[in-house]
Design goal:
About 50% of the residues lie in helices and about 5% in strands. The protein has about 160 residues and is mainly α.
Length: about 160
């Protein structure tokens, strides 16, 4: 979605092959992602030799929550938040209250940002400043603070 938003400035349609090169994701995986994004009305696919994908609305109008819900379903930390029937303990589970609050907060955050916030440097900088107190926001700082010099969790970074 970010690559489609960036492409609006240069071209209308973007091929999955180009997105695969930029992101390191396989075309097969991107094809699978495109299905729910199309169903949600967030992207349109155009067939043919000069085909590709494009956003259905400007990036400023696409909330991050729409993308997450299209790809993953309702935003929740655990399944029992949106489907209490999946757990026999839901009716009296003390932790479920916290999971529900946390899930609601995650949705609020996703609702408060748009796709445009992820592609505009000024917007990104304002978001970083607003949340400068978050310890995991700046990956470069975290990597520099690592004493063992190992990079954990990101296969692309580990291969560099």
């Amino acid at each position: 979605m970010i690559e489609l938003a960036r492409a609006l400035k240069r071209q209308k349609l973007v091929r999955l092959g180009k997105i695969a090169k930029v992101t390191g994701l396989s075309i097969n995986y991107l094809t699978q992602l495109a299905i729910p994004l199309k169903s949600a009305g967030l992207v349109v696919g155009v067939s043919g030799r000069n085909g590709g994908f494009h956003l259905t609305r400007p990036p400023e109008e696409i909330r991050l929550s729409e993308i997450v819900v299209a790809l993953d379903g309702p935003v929740s930390v655990t399944d029992c938040v949106v489907s209490p029937d999946v757990c026999l303990n839901s009716a009296f589970c003390e932790a479920r209250m916290i999971w529900s609050i946390l899930s609601g907060t995650m949705l609020e955050v996703l609702e408060s940002y748009t796709l445009a916030d992820l592609i505009d440097r000024d917007r990104i900088n304002r978001i970083r400043e607003k949340h400068a107190d978050l310890p995991y926001l700046d990956p470069d700082r975290l990597l520099n603070e690592k004493e063992d010099g190992e990079i954990h969790g990101c296969p692309k970074a580990a291969g560099k």
